[in-house]
Amino acid sequence: MTEQFFAAVAGGDVDALVAVLSPGVVLTSDGGGQVKAARRPITGADKVARFLVAIAAQGFTIPGLRTEFTDVNGTPGVVVWAGDEPYLVVSLVVAGGRVEQVLLVVNPAKLTGLRVRSAGAT
Question: Which site among 66, 70, 90, 117 is 20 to 30 Å from 9 CA-CA?
């Protein structure tokens, strides 16, 4: 299901994305006032799906993006890297076989730990 979620986002397939989202899904994002993010939570499968597909399309214009599937604070997620720098982290809260929450972090201050861990791993 997690792979279906990310494949639908990357493929721009709103209908496939809605199919894995709970009708009452909530997306929250954290830009820390430094990076553009949704100011308020986005609720509802259709609104969340359209938002995710739109920001994914914008992300594809950034050179050198790569994704890494991983656990994020104990939940399924992905880290998106722009070169050697973390660009964003997406984590999912799943219940009953559907995504209940989507948590997006683009706040550079909160991505710092990923830089340190990545630098130590190379």
Answer: 117
Domains held by the chain: number: 1
Structure tokens, 4? 């279906």
Whole-angstrom Cα distance, residue 31 to residue 106?
5
Q: Per the confidence metrics, is the pTM higher than 0.90?
A: no
Instruction: Write the CATH number for 113.
Output: 3.10.450.50
CB 51 within 8 A of CB 40: no
Helices H, strands E: what count in the chain?
Answer: 4, 6
pLDDT digits (tens, 9 = 90+) for 22-79: 999 999 998 877 777 888 999 999 999 999 999 887 776 777 788 888 888 888 888 9
